[in-house]
Every structure is written in C-alpha cells, then in structure tokens.
Design goal:
320 residues; alpha/beta; TIM Barrel; two-stranded antiparallel sheet; 12 strands; 38% helix; globular; binds ligand PBG
C-alpha cells in the first residue's frame, strides 16, 4: 500500500521533507508616512498598523531592522492634494523627505517607493483626469517626474502601482537618462481591481471620489491577460514582477513563476490582513496559524518576495 503517512510521523521527519520554507528574507514591510509632526495614528481596520510622521517613525524602523526585515515599501500621505498630484515630484515632498530620512539613519535598510498618484490627487485616481477617466499618456509624463525625484532622494528601488500602460518603459528610460541606470524597478505587473484594497484606501485616504479603477486595473476574471501584462513589464525592463492581491490570485503567482525568469513578488494586501485580524479578534480562527499558513501559500504558489503588513509579526514567529 502507498503509505504517505510514514514521512509525517514526527516533527523531525516532517522538517526533512518540508518543501517550502518561509524566511524573514522574503518580506517587504509597507510603511505609511504622513506629512506633519507627532503623528502616530492607528488605522482602525488594520490593527497594529499606524500612520507615522517622520519624527515618530524611528521606533518602527528600529524594530524592522532588529527583526532583520530586509526592505520597506513607502507610501506617502501629503498634507495637500491637487488635481494632478504635483506633490509627488516635489523634491521636498513627504516621500522624498522620508527616503532621505531613512537612508541617512538606517542606511542598510532597503527602501522601495510606491510610485503612484492616488494619495496625492484631490479626486483619488491614479493619474491625470481627462473626460472622467485617467489619461494614460498624460499620466506617464508625471510618472517620469515622480520617478526621477524618488531616485534623486536616494530610493533603492521604485515600484509603480498605477497600472498605466507603458509605465515601466517610461520609467526605465527616464532613470537611464538621468544617471540611474542601476536603479531597479518592481512592476505592479498584474494588479486587479480588487475589493481587498478597502482598508488601504481608508488608511491613506485614496478612495476615488467618482467612478472606480476598473478602466486601468485588471478584471479579476482574467488569467491569460495577467500573462500578457507581465510580458509587457518584462519586455519593458521590470526587474521584479508582482501580482496583487495575493491570496485570491495564487494561480496567477504560479503562472508568472512558470513563465518568467525574474523574481516574482506578491502583495498580501490590506483586506487580506484585516480579515485575518478581525476573525482572530473574534476568536474564530488562530490568527498566528492562519497568518503563517497564508504567507506560506504565497511562497508555495511561487512568490520569491512577499509584501506584507504581517512582516514584523511573522518575523517574530520565524525568529523564535
Ligand atoms: C495605489 C495602491 C493601492 C494599494 C497599493 N497602492 C490601492 C489601490 O490601487 O486602490 C493597495 C495596497 C493594499 O490594499 O494593501 N495605487
């Protein structure tokens, strides 16, 4: 008889035959940085996650470094918004200040920046609006300005999340032309128009004031199109390809892993975090177990890198 149970008998034999192992090396921790002082505001739907101003963020960064999390992904929350999100390319904007602050005080921490407009535009969309929709090519012009401004401030990697066509090519070209040929780009290559972003939009105040993002983000029904999106980013020169969200899109993560010889990342988004937290709070699930199992599933699906709000908590479990 086939007896698969022979190799499940004790923890030590299970360790020997374990196929997938999570490591703190896999994690990128997102940070919300708000312009102003004395800010440490908990995001109600994301217990444990705060918005910080630069004068309060050090204890968070100390923890990230102590836990040996290799990288952070920065989101800026500006004090003023306008129709085009011009603050995104202000060399003295909140994102640029944050990059300089972290690179000065935590030089070994790898700093990745979210390159988008939705937190900076008065209407909450990810670019320039024409005729009630985001104008792709007008947005690319601003995207190039924002990218170079992040590079000048000292970012280690840039990651465009706006799903504009041609973004990677535009960013690669502007970086190459300004002396940043060695700065890598992580593409939010396959990003779906998802309900799982709800808590994030509350966190950074970026919900669109009209319409939704379905004219630029992907339809959750589409799998083949995910490969097409990833192919464009790959050919345009993205160094890392990302799938977002993660849990409902594990099939897409595996598709990318099987089809591209680039590192594959996934974004374990806000709603995925909130669901686990809420159910654990109610005592309906074992929060730590479900957290580790979810992260493991992303790695098993093929993610080399996991962007997650659980990074600190999971690192503590892994370092035990
Ligand atoms: C902005 C952006 C979003 C997220 C990351 N960058 C939200 C969106 O597209 O509306 C979501 C992150 C999360 O939910 O954790 N372009």
């Amino acid at each position: 008889m086939f007896r698969t149970r022979r190799l499940r008998k004790t923890e030590n034999i299970r360790r020997l035959v374990r196929e997938t192992k999570l490591s703190v090396d896999d994690f990128i921790y997102p940070l919300f940085i708000e312009e102003g002082t004395g800010i440490e505001t908990e995001i109600p739907s994301m217990p444990g996650i705060n918005r910080y101003s630069l004068d309060t963020i050090s204890k968070e960064l100390d923890e990230v470094v102590a836990l040996k999390i290799p990288a952070v992904l920065l989101f800026g929350i500006p004090s003023k918004k306008d129709v085009e999100g011009t603050e995104t390319w202000n060399d003295n904007g909140i994102m640029q200040q944050a990059i300089r602050f972290i690179k000065k005080n935590y030089p070994s921490l790898y700093v990745i920046t979210d390159v988008c407009f939705c937190e900076y535009t008065s209407h909450g969309h990810c670019g320039v609006i024409h005729d009630n929709d985001v104008d792709n090519d007008a947005t690319l012009v601003n995207l190039a300005k924002q990218t170079v401004s992040h590079a000048k401030a000292g970012a280690d990697m840039v990651a465009p999340s706006g799903m504009m066509d041609g973004a990677i090519a535009m960013m690669r070209e502007s970086l190459d032309n300004t002396g940043y040929a060695n700065l890598p780009i992580m593409g939010y290559s396959v990003k779906y128009a998802s309900g799982f972003y709800g808590p994030f939009r509350e966190a950074v105040d970026s919900a669109p004031s009209f319409g939704d993002r379905r004219t630029y983000q992907m339809d959750p029904s589409n799998r083949d199109e995910g490969l097409r999106e990833a192919t464009f980013d790959d050919e345009e020169g993205a160094d890392i390809l990302m799938v977002k969200p993660a849990l409902s899109y594990l099939d897409i993560i595996r598709d990318l892993k099987n089809n591209f010889d680039r590192p594959i990342a996934c974004y374990n988004v806000s709603g995925e975090y909130s669901m686990v937290k809420a159910a654990a709070e109610k005592g309906w699930i074992d929060g730590e177990k479900v957290m580790m199992e979810s992260l493991l599933s992303m790695k098993r699906a093929g993610a080399d890198i996991i962007i997650t709000y659980f990074a600190k908590e999971a690192a503590r479990v892994l370092n035990k």
